[in-house]
């Protein structure tokens, strides 16, 4: 579904190292999907394989994708943070979401058939299979930690990202990141600024001005982090049209984490502090 081919690095403007943002930071927090990892293939690939494993025809990719988006949005509204407040088990949250995804796409299954389909989908997305790590992710995170910075993950994800998915992808706590704030565990999700406050606290009470957040969404990453007083920058790995709008409004937007490292090394504090 996504490609990282053909990305050209932007050269950060040359500035005095005395103005280096890097020297002022104690913490860097990082989003996960779209920043460190990407989905491999399409949602329909995995729903198709699951349906076939239960002896059913492959559902239409477009209808399933649209059905999932609607079902996910509805579940997130009714039971945010993967059912955290309602103490809903994560598997149950996803079971309701997946059944509704199929229903909205026009597919109904008897209970036994759906259970087989769901088990396949749930197991797949709780593994490394549907994800790929961007080639610059490991190097960037380890570089930050070698510089003495704390690295935190801030993600709208449930506990399996922390316990299974990221470790299976080689993004390990203790080598690539120090701590994580995951919405399904913390009970608060982006763009709520409390998830960023939780990250600052988890890092030992770091002041917002001593922290940088890196993500790929203006609404859920950049705006709430800046609103709290943190520094922030956005990645545009897939050359989206909206990224140009972000740039025109003064938001620092870079193509990947290689450029982010160059940008930090160059001391580009002027643009990062611009609101």
TrEMBL record:
Transmembrane segments: none annotated. It comes from the Eukaryota. Pfam families: Hydrolase. Gene3D superfamilies: HAD superfamily/HAD-like (3.40.50.1000), Haloacid dehalogenase-like hydrolase (1.10.150.720). CDD domains: HAD_dREG-2_like. This is Haloacid dehalogenase-like hydrolase domain-containing protein 3. It comes from Urochloa decumbens.
